[in-house]
């Protein structure tokens, strides 16, 4: 496809001095396993799969040697490493407020009210990523766990504090309004309540993207309820009743460019360094912790990976639709499926979000948007770079 080549190369050429590998799909392609898994686990991968090192599988070899879990009772998930790595918001109340000097707040999910139904599951995500037998999806525990009614042992549900540039403007603190981090396995994207319509789209599209070979978060399950939420589908003032739904999403990490920006913006530089070190240590094995250029090296990897990701989006005509810095993963995986769309025939002005009148996030602008976002990442890194390292 010529438009793919055009955009891919235009974008990549601009970064050629930073690009170390521009072809092929990075091995993070099949990545989207668990949230934040250990370095040791990441090593245990082949070209399609990583395997989680759960407590059940201490002797992990790189093939599935253990049976999947049929009962969710025996599975433990943990928020321990995240809690150990970062100071936690001392306030435990679940309300919208400005949070300082922390990366996470404890936030109990509000259960989706019944009657509930499992509308869809991804067998592959359940079995190959989470090591659950797909039959576990028929249990009550599964429904309650993935819809916020019940917490698995070890889970301390967290909301992540981040910021972001939205539509070209610094939007200050954003943070997980709808999403909860349930522990080091899964992220339940639940409200604030999504509606079935958007949840089905997220469930299907993230699976499609995975099979197209594009780095993405995965969807484990889609649970729907009869609980009614009110939504203005076309943002035109016509509010309609719709059913609520929750998608359980799985990704190696949910940290975003905005996760760093908020800390830089509030001058929380120690915490900025801590988060960077954590992300590098967990997810960028090729960046050496002792290297004085490690943050630059990290930046250069994110530039490469983001260029790759956007080139892959362009190759299939995918328009993300809301390319704000809070929707851009530091691991350069596709996250936050909102008003995305696929271009039906070549049209660089294709805009999937019907309210994006100026076409800021039109498909033909995704490479520029990527550059803009990477520039915001660069600005967020400036406080931890010395003057000779600062890029302008
Ligand atoms: C799996 O986890 C156990 C316990 O944390 C650890 O001792 C072991 O080294 C891990 N194995 C691999 C291959 O990462
Ligand atoms: C781990 O598993 C492998 C293959 O399943 C086996 O050969 C090896 O002996 C095991 N190691 C331990 C320490 O149990
Ligand atoms: C992505 O960006 C939009 C707009 O900034 C934000 O409201 C939303 O929470 C983010 N995530 C998703 C799932 O759209
Ligand atoms: C679509 O674009 C409009 C206008 O820029 C923006 O306000 C809105 O948040 C976007 N929609 C979503 C779902 O992000």
TrEMBL record:
Domain of life: Eukaryota
One Pfam family recorded for the sequence: SelO
Protein name: Selenoprotein O
GO MF entry, a single one: nucleotidyltransferase activity
Keyword Nucleotide-binding attributed: yes
Signal sequence, renumbered to the chain: 1-24
Family membership noted in the UniProt record: Belongs to the SELO family.
Keywords, alphabetical: ATP-binding, Magnesium, Metal-binding, Nucleotide-binding, Nucleotidyltransferase, Signal, Transferase
InterPro entries according to UniProt: SelO
Cofactor(s) listed: Mg(2+)
